[in-house]
């Protein structure tokens, strides 16, 4: 059946669903389509299932930290199959629940791969729809690495579905995916290795804190090889034989599983964007700051598939989905405000950031005061036996405002939200320090960090 809509959203992930619900609530006729079950990457193949698996790893690690301090952790282990069942208990109901909510809000839920056939025309399987507006919210996929044997790589989606965890695991790429998964795998009894092509992994994070995290990971059994690029994989009797270029030398190693953690690229190739006159490249759909296509005014883009200053993260996808919807509804040109959007790598302990890196702040000529503390001996960390924790808060001396904050420690991904809030509301550090936290909580460490 073919229909004419005010808006068709392509992609039922965080960005798409936020926009579809908002436009339907204002009386627009809205269709949303996905080629996969509804929910997108975050709920089904990313943030949420990943952090459920991490819970098992947290418990193992917490018990180990308390060895000799009243806890006997011998024999404590993760049952991977049971942990997976726990994960499915959350992920399995998501698609039906999400579709039910959309339909209850008046949104038509469509299925199948979507493809443009004109500036206002979209084909979904055999149905041809037209719309006044489109939102491209198709997310991202692992980028093609293109070396001999790359078909043997599994991606993050495969990893989160593994029926069992093998012993020798190689993670290709020293970014979010590899670090988070390696920290889970190490506590589940595997021996993970991460390779990164550059000298510095986790480049989006504070180098001093990354250095501490790498040492903590090494103590938990995670090997990191820097300046190492994978060049081929061959299947052999002993496992997958991996050849790497390590600072100019060729080396081979054998693994049971090789996981792609070497970056993601917008999912746009199957959309036939040229038929709609939509400009795009490997960074995403080309959009103006208010998220409208630079070449087809009927089209907007949001989330991982849009080329915007926002990082490819869930909160950014939600902000952009809502801003795109608001601009379509009201014919406005408001740009998203990314101020104070934090990010965290859910390693153990977790590494978090909001605002600028120290080097970025120095490059901008900000009169910077760096409040840098080793917090490993502070009460909150002593209590749980954590040995690695630090905070680095960057303050503009002339305004007393936080321009960046970097934290490594247990529960610090919660604490970074408070620093993000302070940045968003333009609070001075003096105002932030005037807030009283319940004691003893991790939040009550914030005053001393400042
Ligand atoms: C392993 C992993 C862990 C992550 N963890 C975190 C985290 O802890 N915190 C965080 O903030 N971010 C995390 N992210 C990033 C986060 O998941 C993404 O930034 C976010 O989900 C992007 O949302 P989106 O709406 O732009 O796209 P998506 O959620 O990816 O949704 C896009 C949808 O479009 C559909 N689609 C694509 N092409 C078509 C087509 N042609 N026709 C129809 N449908 C189509 C897809 O099937 C998909 O459902 C993680 C990512 C991964 C991979
Ligand atoms: N906690 C979170 O918020 C979270 C978790 C997972 C993923 N994500 C999102 O997903 C995106 C993709 O994550 P990712 O970890 O795949 O990518 P990433 O961009 O975080 O890291 C990729 C790393 O791989 C390295 N690399 C690239 N090609 C390589 C090669 N051939 N050999 C060796 N190293 C190579 C890069 O130098 C880089 O350090 C992230 O940018 C992030 O936005 C977020």
UniProtKB/TrEMBL annotation:
InterPro entries hit by this protein: FAD/NAD-bd_sf, FAD/NAD-binding_dom, FAD/NAD-linked_Rdtase_dimer_sf, Pyr_nuc-diS_OxRdtase, Pyr_nucl-diS_OxRdtase_dimer
DNA repair found in the keyword field: no
Domain FAD/NAD(P)-binding: 5-321
Binding site for NAD(+): 173-180, 263
Keyword Ribonucleoprotein: no
Cofactor binding: number and manner: Binds 1 FAD per subunit.
Disulfide bonds: 42-47
Binding site for FAD: 51, 304
Domain Pyridine nucleotide-disulphide oxidoreductase dimerisation: 341-443
Key words of the record: FAD, Flavoprotein, NAD, Nucleotide-binding
Family: Belongs to the class-I pyridine nucleotide-disulfide oxidoreductase family.
Name recorded for this polypeptide: NAD(P)/FAD-dependent oxidoreductase
């Amino acid at each position: 059946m073919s229909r004419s809509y005010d808006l068709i959203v392509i992609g039922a992930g965080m960005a798409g669903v936020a926009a579809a619900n908002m436009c339907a609530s204002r009386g627009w006729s809205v269709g949303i389509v996905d080629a996969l079950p509804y929910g997108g990457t975050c709920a089904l193949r990313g943030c949420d299932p990943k952090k459920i698996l991490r819970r098992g790893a947290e418990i193992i690690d917490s018990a180990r930290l308390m060895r000799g301090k009243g806890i006997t952790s011998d024999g404590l282990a993760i049952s991977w199959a049971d942990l997976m069942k726990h994960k499915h208990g959350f992920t399995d109901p998501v698609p039906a629940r999400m579709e039910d909510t959309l339909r209850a809000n008046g949104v038509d839920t469509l299925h199948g791969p979507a493809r443009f056939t004109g500036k206002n025309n979209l084909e979904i399987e055999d149905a041809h729809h037209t719309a006044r507006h489109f939102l491209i919210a198709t997310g991202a996929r692992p980028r093609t690495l293109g070396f001999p044997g790359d078909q043997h790589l599994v991606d993050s989606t495969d990893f989160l579905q593994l029926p069992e965890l093998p012993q020798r695991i190689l993670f290709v790429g020293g970014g979010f995916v590899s670090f988070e998964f390696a920290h889970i795998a190490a506590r589940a009894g595997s021996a993970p290795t991460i390779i990164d092509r550059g000298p510095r992994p986790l480049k989006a994070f504070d180098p001093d804190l990354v250095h501490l995290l790498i040492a903590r990971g090494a103590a938990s059994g995670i090997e990191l090889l820097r300046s190492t690029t994978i060049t081929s994989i061959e299947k052999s009797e002993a496992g997958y034989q991996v050849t790497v270029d390590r600072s100019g030398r060729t080396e081979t190693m054998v693994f049971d599983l090789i996981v792609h953690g070497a970056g993601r690229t917008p999912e746009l190739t199957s959309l036939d964007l040229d038929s709609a006159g939509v400009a795009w490249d490997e960074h995403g759909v080309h959009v103006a700051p208010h998220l409208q296509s630079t070449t087809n005014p009927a089209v907007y883009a949001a989330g991982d598939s849009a080329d915007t200053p926002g990082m490819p993260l869930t909160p950014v996808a939600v902000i952009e989905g809502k801003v795109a919807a608001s601009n379509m509804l009201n014919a406005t040109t408001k740009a998203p405000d990314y101020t104070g959007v934090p990010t965290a790598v859910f390693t153990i302990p977790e590494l978090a950031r909001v605002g600028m890196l120290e080097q970025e702040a120095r490059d901008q000529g900000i009169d910077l005061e760096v409040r840098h503390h080793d917090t490993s001996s502070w009460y909150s960390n002593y209590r749980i036996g954590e040995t690695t924790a630090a905070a680095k808060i960057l303050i503009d001396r002339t305004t007393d405002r936080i321009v960046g904050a970097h934290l490594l420690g247990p529960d610090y991904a919660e604490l970074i939200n408070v620093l993000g809030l302070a940045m968003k509301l333009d609070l001075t550090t003096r105002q932030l320090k005037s807030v009283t936290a319940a004691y003893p909580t991790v939040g009550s460490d914030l005053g001393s960090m400042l």
